[in-house]
Amino acid sequence: MKVNNTIVISIGQAGNQIAASFWKTICQEHGIDPTTGQLVQGKAPAGNWSAFFSQLGESSSGSFVPRAVMVDLEPSVIQQIKATSGSLFNPANLISRTEGAGGNFAVGYLGAGREVLPEVIARLDHEIGKCDNVGGVIVLHAVGGGSGSGLGALVIESIKEKYPETPVLSCAILPSPQISSVVTEPYNTVFALNSLRRSADACLIFDNEALFELAHRKWNIESPTVDDLNLLITEALTGLTASMRFSGFLTVEISLRELLTNLVPQPSLHFLMCAFAPLTPPDRSKFEEMGIEEMIKSLFDNGSVFAACSPMEGRFLSTAVLYRGIMEDKPQADAALAAMREKLPLTYWIPTAFKIGYVEQPGVSHRKSMVLLANNTEIARVLDRICHNFDKLWQRKAFANWYLNEGMTEEQINALRASAQELIQSYQVAEESGAKAKVQDEGETLARPAAAPAKAGGMSLRDLVDRRN
Prior knowledge:
Blueprint: E1 5-11, H1 12-30, E2 53-56, E3 63-66, E4 68-72, H2 76-84, E5 94-96, H3 105-110, H4 112-129, E6 134-142, H5 146-162, E7 168-174, H6 185-198, E8 202-207, H7 208-217, H8 226-245, H9 256-263, E9 271-277, H10 292-299, E10 316-325, H11 330-343, E11 354-359, E12 368-376, H12 379-394, H13 400-404, H14 410-442, H15 461-468
Parallel strand pairs: 1-4, 1-6, 4-5, 6-7, 7-8, 8-9, 10-11
Antiparallel strand pairs: 2-3, 9-12, 10-12
Helix pairs in contact: 1-5, 1-8, 4-5, 5-6, 6-12, 6-14, 7-8, 10-11, 12-14
């Protein structure tokens, strides 16, 4: 069976910094030197390396090249990656311009972003041409910045337009005032949400608000930096992709398509959250190891999720737990997860909402670890927080001229805000219908199928731009 090839596109400062950390870690997991792409000590590469790497040359002396495209509208981060990654990346896939987006979605979406888009898609085409079996595209970007939000939205729309059958997972970092001082982040995030809602097959949320608190509480860091938060995200991403990169006696490859099919019950409900265990401080991970039951309890704890909300107070529409490490613990993990499932507030109109995957290959930092991916209605609380901050700015038209001067109109801005509200309401409907179904079930009344949440409707910014023109 052919291995599914996955391409990773990173956009903007945060997206590229996370990508650099991610590629360094998975190079180590596969036995590839993260500065040369050569095999470490001449050994064969571990796992299904072709899932995320292509090979130059057929012999053991050939090098392995990440299936990566990195783009930013300002040059500093891309230059830093070039300086520190040696000859690992294809230099043609490291794309930058001379001026950034200035924290402005409109520059990334309507201005400079459109100038760089053809080059980005050309490099994606090149990478797809090298694939035997395209399994999907992962996009890493922060939606608070101008490049990550505007250009990120534009790239995702363009991928789905050109390759509609290819699964696209957006890994979107949401802003927090604790880690950034860019006042226009709520604008950029709300504007990007419309494209993520309409064009991405799923969007995995990494909420800086929650990540900051996790690094502070779990890792005992007084004032966490961006690097600390990126390390948390890297832990989750390597765990998420492990089932795509390794297979074995007890492990079946889980493709991006299969993962998203299990996690997205309806197209309009595709915003996911995650958690990772163990959240042991990096300098202690070699010396402290959690038991399986303790790890699972930690995984589902409200204080461990990478989003500032309380999943146990919402409804789980779908859940996937990906375990990697010592297989002797598998029976214990099965039993603990079965017991945990009975405690979860599930949505009763989705009967097969709990999936488990196992990977024998441990990660770099932990002999055993787990990643939780959850489609939970509490994500509406996270999005509502962003919208509330948006409203505080927009009701005073604060910084509105930044966007109006780049070609957006008040009509477009109001439409994009309404789209975000529709998304929030679709999750609220799902939560209410799940609760009603439980009440009917407990009353031994035949539950009718819940009304479907509102579909991802609304008008895209591209539609509005075309109408204006």
